[in-house]
Amino acid sequence: MEYKISPSLMCMSLIDIKQQLAVLNRRADMLHIDIMDGHYVKNITLSPFFIEQIRPHTPLILDVHMMVENPSDFIEPIALAGADFICPHAETINRDAFRIINQIRSLGKKVGVVLNPATPVEYIQHYIHLLDKITVMTVDPGYAGQPFIPEMLGKIAQLRDLKQQKNYRYLIEIDGSCNLRTYQDLLAAGAEVLIVGSSGLFTLDTDLDVAWDKMLDQMRQARHAA
To answer: Is 217 a catalytic residue?
Structure first.
């Protein structure tokens, strides 16, 4: 199975953003941008303004992960800033999921949802057929560098089997501790998009091109083993 690589921009060096973005433009499939409001999770990272600033400088798909309590407040600004995928947490749209999905679609964007580790696939069963991407959190959300939760491998496999059985179109994306220790299990379970952050990419070498080569070598080994 082919897979896509999506670097998490919250883990890049903002001091070296121009140089690192040039490397990612040559090598990545898409870019992952975390929006946090300091309420849904106790952290604040990137913003619609950040999306607006980098959009002219990258041709890549911008995949926006919304860790916010009120997604409807952010969707239009994120869309206007240049996002391609807009992905709220399923837990935050339970009251108005169909309205949120329609809002994102009306702005010409693709729709994703994100599932926290303790949230089952059944939580989204009534609108799963409408989704372009499902992100499985394999760590609790909010911070980089957390330990992998192995129980999520069953959830990934469940989404893979549902997609095959029902001919759904969603991509299966993984967010959290995608690295040398987990690639083999993630790919075997059915992962299609790997979000790479601190442990998977940015700390492998101070030269991002070298770090990317090291990451690819690790992924190739895992793929052959899987």
So the answer is: no
CB half-sphere exposure, 115, CA atoms < 13 A = 23
Strand partners, 137: 175
| Average pLDDT score over the chain | 93
At 216-225, the pLDDT tens digits run: 999 998 877 7
Q: pLDDT digit string (tens) for 131-157?
A: 999 999 999 876 666 789 999 999 999
* Residue 160 confidence (pLDDT) above 80: yes
| Set 37, 132, 175, 185: catalytic member | 175
| Whether the predicted pLDDT of 226 surpasses 60 | no
3-state helix, strand, coil in the chain (%, to 5): 45, 20, 35
- Given a contact cutoff of 8 angstroms between Cβ atoms, the answer to whether 178 and 153 are in contact is no
Report whether 13 belongs to an annotated binding site: no
Residue 16, Cα to own-chain centre: how many angstroms?
22
Of the chain, the percentage scoring pLDDT greater than 90 comes to 84
Q: How far apart are CA 32 and CA 66, in angstroms?
A: 11
Q: Helix 72-81 and helix 97-106: axis angle, to 10°?
A: 20
State the SS3 of 116-152: CCCCCHHHHCCCHHHCCEEEEECCCCCCCCCCCCCCH
Phi, psi at 84, each rounded to 5°:
-105, -45
Residue 142 assigned ligand-binding role:
yes
